[in-house]
Specification:
Layout (H helix, E strand, L loop, with lengths): L2 E3 L2 E3 L3 H4 L32 E5 L4 H13 L6 E4 L9 E2 L14 E2 H8 L11 E4 L4 E4 L2 H10 L18 H16 L1 H6 L4 H21 L13 H20 L11 H11 L10 H9 L30
Parallel strand pairs: 3-4
Antiparallel strand pairs: 1-2, 3-7, 5-6, 7-8
Helix pairs in contact: 2-4, 2-8, 5-7, 5-8, 8-9, 8-10
Length: 321
């Protein structure tokens, strides 16, 4: 998939992504600064200063796109979605400010990383949160970005959204986030990118154990934590919405579909049907990004037509209020 080494792009980053056991290892995000409402962090929350580089297929980027939409921050924080096939890194036909597409009318995301640090070594990922004022990357860790969007831009938010990380439930949210990240969010990748049968076997079981646990949890309550969706729900949702369309077949996560879990599936429909949300869920873009953009998993690049799934079908979750 490629990465930067001291500011130079290399196409083969296999030794950095897989352990000797064949297990996929996700490197830590490199940029970890924080935007605060009062600017005490060095990055002050203000309109028209920050920009998100995203991609339709990426669940980590999708987290930030969803929270940006739900909070009503689309006029405050600009964003671009990757709209060209990956050449090296994520590719865009639109730049930002004086950073313009050059080669073949395309801006590649690694060029942003080199602008921020000409000697950068590491992965080039979405979401990338760019500071237009100081011309640097603030953060590329989705979990941290969604918390900034949740709390630091309230002055500019158009929607009065409940706190997605309420103090009362933080311990529960953190505990559930940790399990879901290890076994589901990242678990699908550990199955899909496994290089040995043993590495695959190690992660496929815990994934479906977590699904079984969530199915039981959701039999008695509408959402994971409280009476409205918190960050835990949205972090899970981005994997659930991709599962039957992509992960079930492309990543060999085919013990059961999410549709085979009545509570989990109705829960997925419930979240998908949140007013205004489906406009930032591009199922075709998700399928193209995985099937067409991961030649290590799908060498032909052929994108399947199906499955045909009605995400607008009625759900029964309001009965659990």
């Amino acid at each position: 998939m490629g990465m930067l080494i001291e500011g130079q792009w290399i196409d083969d980053d296999e030794k950095y992504r897989n352990s000797t056991s064949g297990t996929f290892v996700r490197p830590e995000s490199s940029w970890r600064d924080t935007i605060t409402a009062d600017g005490s962090s060095g990055f002050k929350a203000e309109p028209d200063r920050y920009h998100l580089f995203l991609a339709p297929s990426c669940p980590w980027a999708h987290r930030t796109q969803i929270i940006r939409r739900l909070k009503g921050l689309e006029k405050t924080i600009s964003a671009t979605l990757s709209d060209r096939p990956r050449i090296r890194s994520w590719a865009y036909t639109e730049g930002i400010d004086d950073i313009k597409p050059v080669e073949a009318g395309v801006l590649e995301l690694h060029e942003i990383y080199i602008k921020a640090d000409p000697n950068y070594t590491g992965r080039v990922t979405v979401p990338t949160l760019w500071d237009r004022k100081t011309q640097t990357i603030v953060n590329n860790e989705s979990a941290e970005i969604i918390r900034m969007l949740n709390s630091e831009f309230d002055e500019f938010a158009e929607n009065d959204l409940p706190d997605l990380y309420p103090v009362t439930f933080r311990a529960l949210i953190d505990e559930l986030n940790d399990r879901i990240y290890k076994t589901v969010n990242n678990g699908v990748y550990r199955c899909g990118f496994a290089k040995t049968q043993e590495a695959y076997n190690e992660h496929i079981g815990p994934m479906f154990e977590t699904f079984d646990h969530l199915e039981e949890l959701l039999s008695n309550q509408r959402y994971l934590i409280t009476s409205y969706p918190t960050e835990a729900d949205w972090r899970l949702f981005v994997t659930l919405i991709r599962f039957d369309f992509v992960y079930f077949s492309h990543f060999k996560c085919n013990i059961r579909r999410i549709q085979d879990y009545p509570n989990l599936w109705n829960y997925t429909l419930d979240l998908y049907q949140t007013p205004g949300l489906r406009q930032v869920i591009d199922i075709d873009g998700i399928k193209r990004g995985y099937y067409g953009g991961q030649s290590n998993v799908n060498p032909s690049g052929v994108v399947p037509t199906g499955p045909i799934i009605d995400l607008t079908a009625p759900h029964n979750r309001e009965l659990l209020l």
